[in-house]
TrEMBL record:
GO terms for cellular component: plasma membrane. It comes from Devosia pacifica. Belongs to the ABC transporter superfamily. Transmembrane segments: none annotated. SUPFAM superfamilies: P-loop containing nucleoside triphosphate hydrolases (SSF52540). NCBIfam families: oligo_HPY. This is ABC transporter ATP-binding protein. It is found in: Cell inner membrane. The keyword Transport applies. One of its GO terms (molecular function) is ATP binding.
């Protein structure tokens, strides 16, 4: 069965020295949500731009429904872009302040020649706005007249206007209040159920990821270091960096609280990536082997892969908690 999206060994080097993405591979099925998580600067947003062909990879391939996007003509690429849409992090800066809400949500249809005439455009805009809880009275409003949550709803329905197969959502709720965040996540899930769309959901918020994702891919310094189904990732992470990320998630009950793991220092620069495991400079479990050899992303359980030399040696949570107790 052909995957909806396949990224193979993606690399992106800026300025000949900055390895922003350094050998990333993953796939995405129809109707699936893959969450791409990690600290700021790990390469998540660069991956999203590579998938959308907003920037070209230095190496690697991207296939959509089996077709190599790097070999497509501009005409073929335009057709594929109808099937892949984007939801931006900042709902205000992503909307043209000179356009009304109606024009914003129907612009993709006009660009692709799918809608003509002012009356038809207004009717279509009204129908689209209603699907995200807005109404006909909002059609002629300007972006400045909406709240942050309403603006993000505009961004979401604009992305869905063409009926895409895949939506890349880059931190789509990080700028919103918690209550509004929940509303927007529910809209995304309802739209996915109704339209069958797949999501590449980029985030640093593990609580949101736990709510929306089917699988989780953890990035660190340009590489995926863990890739797993949501259930096994949250219950039994196999990389110490993943465990540190999860330890910062508020627990729903005191008995389920993880001991907070405080990593020392900042991530190394992508200009000067450490030898061996690129996490060893901050890892509480690092040994001499980690400094010499880079671990591959390998299967450690059913559909669960991790790039750690000692992923299966003993329970990750207990050994990270033990070593972190003496940390700063």
């Amino acid at each position: 069965m052909t995957k909806l999206l396949e990224a193979n060994d993606l690399r992106k080097v800026f300025g000949g020295a900055v390895r922003a993405v350094d050998g990333v591979s993953f796939s995405l099925d129809e109707r699936e949500t893959l969450a791409l998580v990690g600290e700021s600067g790990c390469g998540k947003s660069t991956v999203s731009r590579l998938i959308l062909r907003l920037t070209d990879p230095t190496e690697g391939t991207i296939r959509f429904e089996g077709q190599d996007m790097g070999r497509m003509s501009q005409r073929a690429l335009k057709e594929v872009r109808r099937e892949i849409q984007f939801v931006f992090q900042d709902p205000f800066s992503s909307l043209d302040p000179r356009m009304t809400a109606g024009d914003i949500v129907t612009e993709p249809l006009a660009v692709h020649g799918l809608i003509k005439g002012r009356a038809k455009r207004r009717d279509t805009a009204t129908d689209l706005l209603k699907t995200v809880g807005l109404s006909a009275k909002h059609v002629n409003n300007w972006p400045r007249q909406f709240s942050g949550g309403q603006r993000q709803r505009l961004g979401i329905i604009r992305a869905f206007a063409l009926g895409p197969r895949l939506i890349v959502a880059d931190e789509p709720v990080s700028a919103l209040d918690v209550s509004v965040r929940s509303q927007v996540i529910n809209i995304l899930q309802d739209m996915q159920e109704d339209k069958g769309t797949a999501y590449l959901f980029i985030s640093h918020d593990m609580a949101t990821v736990k709510h929306i994702a089917d699988r989780v891919a953890v990035m660190y310094l340009g590489k995926i270091v863990e890739l797993a189904p949501k259930s096994s990732f949250f219950s039994a992470p196999q990389h110490p960096y993943s465990e540190a990320l999860l330890s910062a998630v508020p627990a729903s009950h005191p008995d389920k609280r993880r001991e907070r793991i405080l990593l020392q220092g900042d991530p190394p620069s992508p200009v000067n990536i450490p030898s061996g495991c690129r996490f060893h400079t901050r890892c509480p479990l690092a040994q001499e082997l980690c400094k010499r050899e880079e671990p591959p992303l390998a299967q450690v359980a059913d559909n669960h892969a991790a790039a750690c030399h000692f992923a299966q040696a003993w329970p990750m949570r207990s050994r990270v908690a033990d070593t972190s107790a003496s940390g700063p």
